[in-house]
Specification:
about 110 residues, mainly alpha, about 80% helix, elongated
Amino acid sequence: MIDMLGLVFISIGLFFDFVGCLGLVRLPDVYNRLQASTKCITLGTCSILFGAFLIHGFVAAGIKALLCILFLVLTSPVSAHALARAAHKSGVKLCEESVVDRYAEDGN
């Protein structure tokens, strides 16, 4: 039963990773692509790792999967923010359809 639940989490993770990769190809600018990759890939990869943890249990591989989830959840938002801020400071333009630019509003 737990193995089946682990496979369900892995399948959900693969779906989210696929949607995130599709967003990288289809979205118009670096900021939207960063949004897609950060949200979908983080959720997808965490789901895959949690599925691996459910399948393996509390052995070395399962504990490593949990630690990877913790690392990914802590570092992914920070790195996405740093990349978006660096792109904005270096002058990368938003797409024409964008309506809000919080960095420009703040004067940074």
